[in-house]
């Protein structure tokens, strides 16, 4: 937001002076004074402020203005607009409040002007989205960032340097934040266009896979170990809430012999092609109306083998060899044990390529993942 101090500071001074001379309670007049200043001096500049998220969240807001956000039909965008506006108003409130208190204390206009221009509260740079807000989290790479408003642009890690006329007046803690030496770990997203799809591999030794809602107890995967693996592979603390985190968590599961994919609360269909041996998991609503959607491959010949309830928001499967020992321990046949948890899908032994198409956008992909024998 580009701020014209030659008009802003006099406006704050005059309106606060009017509030003081009115004799009314400052607590009652403070918000009225703030909004009057915002609407007259800052609104046009605020609406024209450009958003730039450093490639995070698929750069979905790159080049958009605050006015675009306000007019968007997306509730998420409107919420972001309100959050940035709220943070901006908080900064304005500090300026208005300190001006009023100094007027009451009898300070001159020049003293108030100089105080504002040497204070870290001024609008030269304003943190508008920080790591305490959900918006600062990138659902693609899983990094947290802090975003600042500076001279008409909201961007990641925006900073002022020691050449600024205000630098010597800033508090040391504030200087650390402006230098980018704070807790923000992100320097731009490594996947600015998101992750469209990715391939992973597993070797199947038997003639069946057991598909179910949750098979973690069969493989005995330690969730702490899994999350540690995700962070180590990412190179920073990460979780399965991001596309990258989900990808590495699935990789860790595959290394343990468990096919496990995040699919959201979608209750997908698991379908099998008896001619090619391929398997896929698809959105059940889309599956019923294939002609209206573009699938990533030819789906003719696929038939549903069952449905996953996704109580834990995943589709999971294991080689039936692993399941046979579980069935034996529980005095059950393979079919009985599979039916207790889910259902069997026939496969040919060999190496399989598993392609993940959903990339954490559950509602946007007709097929979540597919399995094809490659060796």
Walk me through what this model shows:
Helix content is 38%, strand content 19%. By secondary structure, it is of the alpha+beta class. The chain folds into 2 domains: 5-178, no CATH class; 198-373, no CATH class. The strands form 3 sheets. The protein has a 6-stranded antiparallel beta sheet with strand order 5-13-14-9-8-10. Helix 2 (26-47) packs across helix 4 (75-104). It starts with a helix and ends with a strand. The mean pLDDT is 83.
As residue ranges, the low-confidence spans are none
Q: How large is the count of helical segments?
A: 12
Biggest beta-sheet profile: 6 strands, antiparallel
Assign the structural class, choosing from mainly alpha, mainly beta, alpha/beta, alpha+beta, or little secondary structure: alpha+beta
The helix content, as a percent range, equals 25-40%
Count of separate structural domains: 2
Mean pLDDT rating? 83
The helix/strand series, from N terminus to C terminus, equals HHEHHHEEEHEEHHHEEEHEEHHEEE
User: How many distinct beta strands?
Assistant: 14
- Alpha-carbon distance between the two ends: 58 Å
Shape: elongated
What is the CA-atom radius of gyration, in angstroms? 28 Å
What order do the strands of the largest sheet run in, or round the barrel if closed? 5-13-14-9-8-10
As a percent range, the share of strand residues is 15-25%
């Amino acid at each position: 937001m580009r701020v014209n101090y030659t008009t802003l500071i006099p406006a704050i001074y005059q309106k606060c002076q009017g509030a003081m001379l009115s004799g009314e309670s400052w607590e009652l007049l403070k918000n009225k004074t703030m909004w009057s200043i915002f609407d007259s001096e800052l609104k046009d500049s605020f609406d024209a402020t450009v958003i730039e998220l450093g490639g995070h969240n698929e750069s979905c807001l790159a080049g958009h203005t605050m006015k675009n956000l306000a007019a968007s039909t997306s509730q998420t965008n409107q919420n972001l607009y309100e959050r940035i506006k709220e943070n901006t108003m908080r900064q304005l409130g500090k300026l208005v409040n300190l001006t009023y208190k100094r007027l009451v204390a009898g300070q001159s206009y020049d003293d108030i002007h100089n105080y504002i221009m040497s204070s870290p509260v001024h609008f030269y740079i304003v943190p508008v989205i920080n790591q305490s807000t959900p918006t600062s989290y990138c659902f693609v790479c899983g990094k947290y960032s802090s975003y600042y408003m500076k001279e008409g642009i909201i961007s990641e890690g925006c900073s002022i340097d020691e050449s600024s006329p205000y630098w010597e007046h800033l508090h040391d803690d504030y200087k650390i934040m402006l230098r980018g030496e704070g807790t923000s770990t992100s320097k731009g997203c490594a996947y600015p266009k998101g992750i469209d799809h990715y391939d992973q591999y597993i070797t199947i030794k038997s003639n069946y896979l057991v598909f179910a809602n949750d098979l973690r107890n069969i493989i005995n995967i330690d969730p702490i170990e899994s999350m540690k693996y995700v962070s180590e592979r990412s190179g920073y603390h990460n979780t399965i809430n991001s596309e990258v985190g989900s990808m590495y968590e699935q990789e860790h599961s595959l290394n343990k012999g468990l096919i496990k994919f995040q699919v959201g609360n979608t209750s997908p269909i698991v379908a099998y092609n008896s001619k090619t041996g391929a398997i896929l998991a698809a959105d059940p609503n889309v599956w019923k109306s294939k002609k209206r959607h573009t699938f990533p491959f030819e789906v003719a010949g696929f038939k549903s083998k069952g449905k996953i309830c996704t109580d834990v928001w995943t589709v999971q499967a294991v080689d039936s060899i692993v399941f046979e020992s579980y069935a034996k321990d529980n005095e059950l046949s393979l079919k009985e044990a599979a039916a207790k948890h889910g259902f069997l899908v026939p496969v040919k032994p060999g190496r399989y390529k598993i392609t993940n198409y959903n990339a954490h956008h559950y509602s946007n992909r007709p097929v979540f993942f597919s399995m094809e024998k490659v060796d």
